[in-house]
Amino acid sequence: MQQDALGRGKFGFIGLEPGVLGRHMWVLLYAAFVSIGLATFDAFATPYVLSESIGIPIDQQGGVVGRLNVYTEIVLLMAFTPFGVLSDRIGRRAVYAFGFTCLALGYALFPLAESVTELAVIRILYSLGLGGVTGMLATVIADYAIPEHRGRMVGLTGVLNGLGVVTSAIFLARLPNVFVEMGYDDFTAGQYTLFIVAGLCAFSAVVVGFGLKGSTAVSKDDRPPVRELFTAGYRAALENPRIAVAYASAFVARGDLVVVGTFLVLWGKVAAVEAGMGTAEAIDAGRIPFVVAQGAALLWAVVAIALIDRFHRMTALAGCMALAAAAYITLLLVDDPLDRANLPFFLFLGIGQISAFLGSTTLIGKEAPAAQRGSIVGMFSVAGAMGILITSGVGGAIFDAIDPRAPFALLGIMNLVVMLAAVYVRFRSPGTAPQDPALASTRA
Question: pLDDT: is 382 or 209 the higher one?
Answer without folding.
Answer: 209
